[in-house]
Amino acid sequence: MGLENVNVWFGEDNERVDAVIDAGFTVSFGGSFGLVGESGSGKSTILRAITGLVPNWSGKISVLGRELSKDRGKEFYSAVQMVFQDPYASLHPRQTVDRVLSEALSLHGFNNVNERILQVLDDVGLDKTFRFRWPHQLSGGQRQRVAIARALIIEPTILLLDEPTSALDVSVQAEILNLLTRLRAEKGLTYLMVSHDLAVVGHMCSKIAVMNGGKIVELLSVEDLRALKAEHPYTKVLLDASVQKRREE
After folding, report:
1. In what order do the strands lie in the sheet with 32-36?
2. pLDDT, tens digit (0-9, with 9 covering 90-100), for 63-90
3. Which architecture, in CATH terms, is 2-248?
């Protein structure tokens, strides 16, 4: 997956606000790439541009070797799925886990519904007793496991991860990150992950883009990140804050 000279804006003329400015990077097949920055930096807007959820964008976005048009077809959503930040908002309160997973299969024309649901629940560490539970009967971590299962059940090759652990308790965050790491290794998935936490992307990603004010200000390898090697002043601020946070924990 690759982006070249991507711009995203809201409003027009004098009311135009540029959310992403001339962004570009490449995610290798089977790799894990992180976008990190504070709130309003444009990182989540890039995910929405990839999925076609923003009306105004320009530049080139390619997925699996094909340049995307303004409209995303069924083929795109078969290959690319998204896991959202808030597991409490991303699941319909009046749908059981079975309904959530069955609808995803139905939309994409899959058969063997029963077999696929049981398999994907096992993949995300939930036993079959969770199948007919309602969202209010699940913890935050369990809801996020269901959200991951919903994304995985149609067998995509790319997952877009929008702050997938930030709404969870600290004790649960590591469990979900380890689950995502295992799933990528087992299924050969490609991840594009958004986070405000350098430690999270350092754990999950081999390459990181630092965003500030809608721009990518620095590209780092995970080795540079762990060695605290940064050139841009904003990246250095993030690194210092991350180190201080870890010392206080």
Report:
1. 80-83, 158-162, 190-195, 32-36, 207-212, 215-221
2. 999 999 888 888 899 999 999 988 888 8
3. 3-Layer(aba) Sandwich (3.40)
